[in-house]
Amino acid sequence: MNDNFQHKGLRKKLVETVKKKGIQSERVLNALNSVPRHLFMDSSFVHFSYADQAFPIGAGQTISQPYTVAFQTELLELKPLEKVLEVGTGSGYQAAVLVEMGVKVFTIERHRELFLKAQSTLNSLGYKPEFFYGDGYKGLPSFAPFDKILITAGATEVPSDLLDQLKIGGILVVPLGDRKSQTMVKLVKESEDKFTRTEHGSFVFVPLLKGKIG
Ligand code: SAM
User: Fold this and answer.
1) Alpha carbon of 90 to ligand 1 centroid (Å)
2) Does some domain include residue 74?
3) Per residue in 153-201, pLDDT tens?
4) Which of 119, 136, 143, 146 could bridge across to 108 with cysteines, CB 3.0–4.6 Å?
5) Domains in the chain, number
6) Is residue 96 part of a domain?
7) How much is the pLDDT for 99?
8) What is the position in ligand 1's atom list of the atom closest to the CA of 95?
9) Rounded to the nearest whole angstrom, what is the distance from the C-alpha of residue 5 to the centroid of ligand 1?
10) CA 47 from centroid of its chain's CA atoms
11) What's the gap in Å between 6 CA and the centre of ligand 1?
12) Active site residues
């Protein structure tokens, strides 16, 4: 896999851009600096890989904007070795950033084509999250509870199964809204049925959809 000086230089600039936009966590910035984003996108997009933009990855889906990836990761307040569920593997880029943060990653994708591609990309780069092909609405009950849950698609509601699968004291981050725009919401689970909710600005994601596509 080719990750040359040009790529590394462009990545450093991208990290500076993301920092200027407000990301403060050095751990998150270091993780972003470590992941070769160009290898998660089709070769025709290689020149755009280090622009702070979302890009198509096939199946009508996108790799999230690096700032958004950093923003959601920062909101999770990750501690080493925590168990983290990511809903929406997509290209696998966010999963790689999470692995770089030193946590145990479980990632689930509803599109079989993307699931297979992300698995191959991440494995070839030595990233070893646990991969699942399925409906993230239902989470992964047999691997619960999770310290943190990250939803990387726009949801109209927070799936109740995911709330159940979060540890007490855990954090769930979800873009919540309609198809046009979502508010980044952070939920902290205070007790089995009590959550503290904070809002963190507007974003636009592809939708979180039920079921899986083979
Ligand atoms: N995290 C991804 C990355 O780093 O490339 C970007 C995710 S993309 C914005 C959203 C992804 O969520 C898409 O790949 C989509 O297929 C997936 N998705 C939507 N609904 C889902 C569901 N119910 N379960 C699992 N994945 C879902």
Assistant:
1) 5
2) yes
3) 999 999 999 999 999 999 999 999 999 999 999 999 999 999 999 999 9
4) 136
5) 1
6) yes
7) 98
8) 4
9) 31
10) 22
11) 29
12) 64
